[in-house]
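Sequence, please.
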């Protein structure tokens, strides 16, 4: 079984074969600088794939338009999460499509 403790939160226990700690993987390290990833990828029932990013804080979407600073903070947060997901998805698909070495599930 595998688990992750990230940002003060505990995720797990997951079957080793369904869990990939992409953030700390050789695959991520081989990609070079500037590539951001989620914490881990998890294979679930019916071949659903979860990309999990752990954050203890998030700018409040309800009050994001109260000031320019709050709006910029919210936009920056959303952009960062989107980049992490896209980079992680690109890496995952490169393995699935056989363009990179297999992930160490």
């Amino acid at each position: 079984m595998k688990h992750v403790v990230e940002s003060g939160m505990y995720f797990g226990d997951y079957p080793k074969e369904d869990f990939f700690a992409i953030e700390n993987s050789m695959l991520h390290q081989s990609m070079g600088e500037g590539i951001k990833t989620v914490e881990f990828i998890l294979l679930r029932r019916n071949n659903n794939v979860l990309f999990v990013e752990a954050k203890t804080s998030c700018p409040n979407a309800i009050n994001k338009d109260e000031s320019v600073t709050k709006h910029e903070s919210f936009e920056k947060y959303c952009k960062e999460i989107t980049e992490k997901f896209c980079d992680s998805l690109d890496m995952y698909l490169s393995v699935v499509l056989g363009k990179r070495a297999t992930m160490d599930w």
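The first strand starts at residue 2 and ends at 6.
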